[in-house]
Amino acid sequence: MELISQHAKKIMEGCKERARDAGLNFDDESLEYIVTNRDFLQLSPKNMIPTLYDYWVQDVEVLREKGQYELYPSNPYETVINTRPPISFYNDNNPDWLNVMIFYHVIGHIDFFQNNLFFRHTWDYDFSGKALSDKRLIAKLRSEKGRWVDYIIEFSKSIDNLVGYFGLLSDLAGNRNREKISMVDFYFDYFLQEQPENSTAVYVKEIEKYNGYVRKYPEDGEGRFVESVKRKYSEFESFYKRALKERKKSGRLDLLQFLMENSEFLNREENSWMKTVMEVIRTTSLYFQPQIRTKILNEGWASYWHEELFLQDDRIKGHEVEFAIVNAKVTSMPRVGLNPYALGMRLFSHLKSQADKGRMSYDFDRLYGQSRRSRYDMQTGEGRDFIFAVRENFSDSMFVNSFIDQGFVNKYKLFVAGKRLNKERMTWEYYVKSRKAKEYKQMIVDSLYHPPSVVVNVDESNSLVLNHVFEKKPLVRDYIQATLLGVEFLWGGKVSLYTSEPEPVKKEPDKDLAVPQETVPRSITWQRFRYSMKDRKMTRVLVE
User: Fold this and answer.
1) pTM value?
2) Which of 154, 142, 139, 138 is closest to 490 using CA atoms?
3) Is 31 found in the same domain as 94?
C-alpha cells in the first residue's frame, strides 16, 4: 500500500475544484492510497480501517474472501472511509480517465460524510487514530488476560447492534440533558397541557395573549408574559425547576452502557478491564451506525455526482464508450433485487427534476388529474438546493418513505418481482408481482437495517430483564441462546428476555408437488415468550 503518484494527486485536486464549483462542501485535506486486490481482501473484514483492533473472525473472513476471489475474480474500483482526513483506496491498475470518474465518486462520499447530520458524532475526532489506540490497548490486554479478551469481544459484539445511536445524536443536537428549554416552551408544551381544566380554547387564548405581549413589548414581551404566568400559577416556577432536574436524568442507557454501569460483576476491581474492552466495541459500533443507515443515500449521492461532474469534464473525450460501460455496471437497475447505487442516484435525479418544476410543494400535491400534474412546471430552479437539503438531513429510511411515489415508480418502470414454480418445466421463474409504489417501497423498507429495540430493567431478585419492543419482526431464534449466554456472563446473574414469536400454523402438504411454492401470505398470531438464562442453561416459556 502506497500513496498515489503526484500525477494522480494533481488529477484529484482538479476534481476537487470542479466539485466545489458545483456546490459540494468538504475539507481540503485527504489521503489517497494505491492498493492491490490482495490488500482489499485484507482490509475488507476490518471495514477498510487498517488500524482497527484484531479479532479472529477477521482472519476467517479473509480466507472466505480469498476463496470467493479465486472462483469469481473481481476488481473493486475504490473505497473511502470517514476519517480526519478522509482516506480512500484505489486499485493499482486504473487508467487516468477512470480515476477521474472514481475521484468524483469519492468526493461525493466525502461531502456526504462531512455534511449529513447522521454522521455528526464522527466530525470531531479522527477514528483511524482512535482505532490504533484501541488496537494497542486490546493487544496489551491480550498479553495479560489471554483468551478472556476475545470472550469479552465476542459477548459485546453479539449485542453491539443495540447501541444508543439515536440517543447520542439527540445529545449532540441538544435535545437531551440540557437546560435550554425556556419557561415559555415549558409552559405551552408541558405545563398548560397537563392542567385538566384547560381546553383547546384556553390554550389558543394563552397563545394569543403571548403574541399580544410580544407585539406590545418587543424588547421584553416574553419576560412580561412569564411574569403574568407566575402570578396566575404560583406553582409554575417550582414545576419548571423540577422538570429541568428530571430532564438531566432522562437519557435511557443502551444495553452495553447499562451493563457497564450496573453490573456488580463488571464493577469488581479485578474485572474493570472488561469494561474497557466493551467501550471499544461500543464506540466502534457507534462509528459505523450511520454508514449502515445511509447506504442508499450515500451511494446514490456519490453516483449522482460522479455522473454529473464527469460528463461535464473535458477529460472524458475519447473515453465515452468506456465510461458508459463502467457506469452501467455500477448504476444499472436490476430487474430482481436492489442496487443502492442505482436506486439512490435515480431518486436524487428525480427529486432535482421535480423540485426544478416546483412539484415538491403543497400546491402540486393538491392537484388532481394526471394531465394537470404532468403539465405543472413553475420553473423554480430549486432542484439543486433541494437535493443538498436532502443530503444533509435524511437517512435511508426517511429517504425511501418520503420520496418513492407512483410517479417515480412509473418513470423508471420499477416493479416488485415474484417467484413461482413452473409445473411443466419444474423450474423457478420470476414474474412482475406488482407495479404499485406502496408495495415497491415496502420491499425496499424491508431490506433496510432495522435492529431490535430492547428496554433494559432489573427486577426484585436482581435479574436482568430485557423487554423486546415488538415491531412485527421476530428475533432470530438461532442466536438467542448464545447471546443470552454472553449477557449472563457480563451481568453476573440470571437474564430474562421477553419477545414475541409467531404461533405455529399447520399447513396441509401439497400432494402434487414435493417442492414448496409461493403462496398467499397467511395471517399470523403472535405470542409472548420469556427466555431465561441461568447458570448457562436456557429455558423458554409462554407468558400471558
Assistant:
1) 0.82
2) 154
3) yes
